[in-house]
């Protein structure tokens, strides 16, 4: 019998939504505890910043949204460089894709483009739901 490291955890199978309405299954190997904890701390810290930016944008009149949207765009770029362990990093495209779609929805709202806003919100919902599944599997 092959001995596993004391923190070894079996891989997890996660079913994710695809943009065309289908699904795909991925296998994620959770990282060691210290790496998981460090990644979760970074994710939580970033999410606090993101939620503050979204709250500010949500309470800003449509005509004055340029500044809050610019801040959200900056945070999307920052999310691409947040240091994550390999398991979490496998889901980064869903994280950044969901955040980017939220920005697109805000821009479409500012421009009174209802259909584009609805499409971006749906894209964000799919991506962030997938991100939440990856985070749950990796922690």
Give the helix/strand layout.
Blueprint lengths: L11 E6 L5 E6 L4 H26 L7 H14 L6 H4 L2 H19 L3 H25 L1
Antiparallel strand pairs: 1-2
Structure in words:
This protein has 139 residues and is mainly alpha-helical. It has 5 helices and 2 strands; from the N terminus they run E-E-H-H-H-H-H. It has helices at residues 33-58, 66-79, 86-89, 92-110, 114-138, and strands spanning 12-17, 23-28. Strand 1 and strand 2 (23-28) form a beta hairpin. Helix 4 (92-110) runs antiparallel to helix 5. The radius of gyration is 17 Å and the shape is flat. The mean pLDDT is 92.
For the sheet with most strands, the description reads: 2 strands, antiparallel
How far apart the termini lie comes to: 27 Å
Bin the helical content.
55-70%
pLDDT under 50 segments (min length 5)? none
Q: In terms of structural class, how would the helical and strand content be classed?
A: mainly alpha
Strand line-up across the major sheet: 1-2
Summarize the structure.
The protein is mainly α.
List key phrases describing it.
mainly alpha; 2 strands; 139 residues
